[in-house]
Design brief:
Elements: E1 2-5, H1 11-25, H2 32-39, E2 54-60, E3 63-71, E4 84-91, H3 100-114, E5 119-125, H4 129-134, E6 138-148, E7 151-161, H5 167-172
GO molecular function: acyltransferase activity, transferring groups other than amino-acyl groups
Organism: Halocalculus aciditolerans
Pfam families: Acetyltransf_1
Length: about 180
């Protein structure tokens, strides 16, 4: 498996991974109506690969099997202070629980360190809370996420303080901001 920066050519595969992940894995934390609203109206045009965010894909045998995104500007929806926000880690269900998500998250943490971020925050879907717990995030609060105009669901706000790496290992990640 290889993790790399996403390009516009990845948009269709990223969209397909996103939809498949929500449909198959979202049922572990949400009812059918919430899952349908969460996955509704996805389009390859929804994914911005240029700009300040880090957008990474994991690929195996030339196919995108997961993706992750990090923003240097945490959203106002977060209650906790953070230097960067993990805006998503999604893995195709055929590759779930094989280390793809962990590898993507570690790559985002490397980018965050290059950005000199000390803390990360995110809203974890119910089905992903254990994944983030295992990665060293701690729970801040439970809150509501709007999946659509008329459907919402509970998510968990989480935060992680990053440990510092040596300058040499931080340089390997390259500056992406």
């Amino acid at each position: 498996m290889r993790v790399r920066k996403a390009t516009p050519r990845d948009a269709r595969e990223v969209c397909a991974v996103h939809e498949a992940s929500i449909a198959a894995l979202g049922v572990d934390g949400y009812d059918d109506e919430q899952v349908a609203a969460w996955g509704a109206d996805r389009s390859p045009d929804d994914y911005a690969f240029d700009g300040p965010d880090a957008f990474l894909v994991a690929e195996t045998d030339g196919r995108v099997v997961g993706f992750a995104a990090l923003s240097p500007r945490p959203g106002d929806h977060l209650d906790t202070a953070a230097d960067a926000e993990v805006t998503g880690v999604y893995v195709h269900p055929d590759h779930a629980r094989t280390g793809v998500g962990s590898r993507l998250l570690r790559a985002l943490e490397t980018v965050a360190r290059v950005w000199d971020a000390d803390t990360l925050a995110l809203h974890a879907s119910r089905n992903a809370v254990d994944f983030y717990d295992d990665a060293g995030f701690h729970r801040v609060r439970e809150t509501t996420h709007d999946f659509s105009d008329d459907t919402d669901g509970r998510v968990v706000e989480m935060q992680k303080t990053l440990t510092r790496q040596s300058r040499a290992s931080r340089t390997v990640a390259g500056r992406q901001r």
